[in-house]
Amino acid sequence: GRKSHRIAQAGMQLVHEERRIFGSLSVEENILLAGITAPKRWPLDRIYEMFPRLKERRSNRGTELSGGEQQMLAIARALVRDPKIVLLDEPFEGLAPVIVHDLVKACRELAAAGQTIVLVEQNLAATLALASRIYIINNGHIVHDGPARELKAQPELLQRYLGV
Questions:
Q1: 47 sits in which H/E element
Q2: What does the pLDDT read at residue 157?
Q3: Less packed terminus of the chain by CB within 10 Å, N or C?
Q4: What are the beta bridge partners of residue 26?
Q5: pLDDT tens-digit series, residues 105-160
Q6: 2: how many CB neighbours lie within 10 A of its CB?
Q7: Alpha-carbon gap, residue 12 to 115, rounded angstroms
């Protein structure tokens, strides 16, 4: 029931499924604008180290980016605010496998550095490659929760819950 800006101030950042970047602004303007009210911000160099492609495209407008680049920018906009928790809503949807691989790698690096990530995703392979804990939701109900390694080690669970 809290207002969006209060949730953001508490340290939670949502990366929407639709990305919601500003198409008329450059990559760098998008990032700087996102961090303008953050009490603590990541420096641009840190963002560009995580997403070198964004550095290459920093003067390009949001509408000039590929889908994968737009997703990187959407994640960068969240990270620049130095969040406690990042919520990723379908971040891999519609992206080429090579881009998904790069995004999974970036998320792994974030997690290894202590960043909490909540991932809502239907791409099972990408989810299992990234997640430490899995919740399977069917028709609004949690039908399974446990360590990701449990699902990897017991394919019958994948068959039971996902038909995989």
A1: helix 44-50
A2: 76
A3: N
A4: 61
A5: 999 999 999 999 999 988 888 888 889 998 988 888 898 899 988 888 887 877 77
A6: 10
A7: 11
Task: Give me the DSSP letters along 64-119.
Answer: GS-HHHHHHHHHHHHHTT--SEEEEESTTTT--HHHHHHHHHHHHHHHHTT-EEEE
Residue 9: CB atoms within 10 Å: 14
Q: Where are the domains of the chain?
A: 4-124, 132-164
Contact 151, 157 (CB under 8 A): yes
**Tens-digit pLDDT profile for residues 1-53:** 899 888 888 899 999 888 889 999 999 999 999 999 888 999 999 999 999 99
115, with CB counted inside 10 A (0-12, 13-18, 19+), is middle
108 token code pair: 């792994």
| Domain topology for 4-124 | Rossmann fold (3.40.50)
pTM of the model: 0.89
